[in-house]
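Exam revision sheet. Question 4 asks you to relate a sequence to its structure. Input first:
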Amino acid sequence: MKHITSTPTAKAPAERFTGDVYLNMIEAPTPPARLASALVRFTPGARTNWHSHANGQTLYVTDGVGLVGTRHGNVVRVSAGHTLKCPAGEEHWHGATDTTLMAHIAMVVGDADGDGTTWLEPVTDEQYTDALDSTNGT
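Answer key, structure tokens:
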């Protein structure tokens, strides 16, 4: 057993996120393990770039209110206690609403080459605003 009493907080890389996002790695696996997990905190308006995962991703929201959107235009408003599963290969993004923080635990089962994440272009302000508008009142 290994008891870890704290993990350092790091600012998320600007080339993968819009706005201020902070990460605490929970598990960075060493082979043969492949599960990576992190606590990710988004400030209001902050979000990931578009991305996909070779083996999918599970998000467990721990605090606040956020959005998860897909290339197909599906947008889900999530809040503390919600779990969302993103299928393998589906291009998506996630982040906070424009007025609230959002934190989630992100879990990814990697592939033979790493965590299996393919990072793409930023979500535009227009795409983000459209997502907010589509979920207002839900």
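Marking note for examiners. The chain has a mean pLDDT of 94.
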